Description:
Layout: E1 4-10, H1 17-25, E2 32-38, H2 45-55, E3 59-63, H3 70-80, E4 85-88, E5 94-95, H4 99-110, E6 114-117, E7 119-123, E8 126-130, E9 164-167, H5 168-172, H6 187-197, E10 201-204, E11 209-213, H7 229-242, H8 247-267, H9 274-290, H10 293-302, H11 305-315
Helix pairs in contact: 6-7, 7-8, 8-9, 8-10, 8-11, 10-11
Amino acid sequence: MLKLSVVVPFYNVQTYAPEALKALELNARDDFEFLLVDDCSTDGTPELLERAAASLPGAVFLRRDRNGGLATARNTGLDAARGEYIAFLDGDDWLAPGHFARTLAAIEALGCDFVRTDHVQVTGKARSVQRVPYGPQGVVGDPRAAILPASRATAVDYPYAWAGMYHRRLLDRGLLHFTDGLRTAEDRPWIWRLHREAASFAAVAMPGVFYRRGISTSLTQIGDERQLDFIRAFDQVLADTEQDRESELLIAKAVRTYCAIIAHHIGSIERFEPAVAKKLRALSADALGRMPRPALDEALDSMDVERSAILRKLRRRTPARAGRSATTPGAAA
C-alpha cells in the first residue's frame, strides 16, 4: 500500500494550477500519489494536468465528464485513493516543500485518526497564519470534546479539509466522503461528522498550506445561486446533530454556527445577484423557522447586537414551525 494519497481537485484554474503542481513536485516521494481530479474544466487546466501526469512522480489524472462541484470532485479522488493516509489540496492553492512528509511524520508519531494543521491565508500580497482553534498542540485528544463550547470558535469552525491528514480507516468507515453536489460549505457537515465519529485527533502547528482568498475564480467571490448551498450544508449539520447520542448538548453549537453564517451572508447581501439575494432572504428565514426554538433563542441572545438584529428581523418573516424538523425534504441527500 502507498503511504499517502493526496486528492487535488481542479476547475478552471489554469492561472494557479502550475504553482499547485510545482508544490506537489516539491512534496513528492516514491510512496506518495497525487490524484489530480479535473472537474470538467473549460479552460486550459486539463492540458496542464495531462502534462503533469506524465512528468510528476506519483501523479494520476482523473477527469470527470460532468462538472459536479468541489465535494463531488473530492469524492472522485477518494474513490481512487490507495494510500494508508489521505490528504487534500485545492488546485488554486499551494504548499511548502516537504509539508506532507512532515505532517505524515506527525500523525504516525501520534497514532491518531487525524491531525489538523495551521495554514497561511494569502490575500493579494498579504499573508497571515491561521491557527486551529484548539488549545493543546501535539497531544492526542477526543474529537467530540473539541466541538464545544457554543460561545466561541472551536475545531468544527475550522473546516478546511486540506488543513490536516487522515488515516485510511476513516475512509473505510465512510467518514471522509463529502455530500455529493454541494457547491459551497461542503466541508461543514464533513468536519462535524469527523469530530462526532472519529476516535482520536490532534492539532499540530505546521502551517504549510497557502490558501488563496479573494481570487475571482473562487466560489466565495461569486454571488450566484451556488452560494446558497450553505443552507443545505447546515441543514445536514442540524439533522445529523439531532440524531447524535448527545444531541441536547451539541445542538446549541450547531444552531449558533448556522445563525452566524446566515448573518454573514445577509450582512454582505449586496454582492449577490438581485434574484439570488431575494432567495437568500427567504431560505434563511425559513431555516430560522426550522431551528429548535430554545437553541435559537439562546443563540440570538448571546450574539452581538448587529448580527442578532439581522437574524431577529429575518425570523419575523417566517413564524417558527410547530415541532422540530432540522431539514427540508431532501436537504441532507
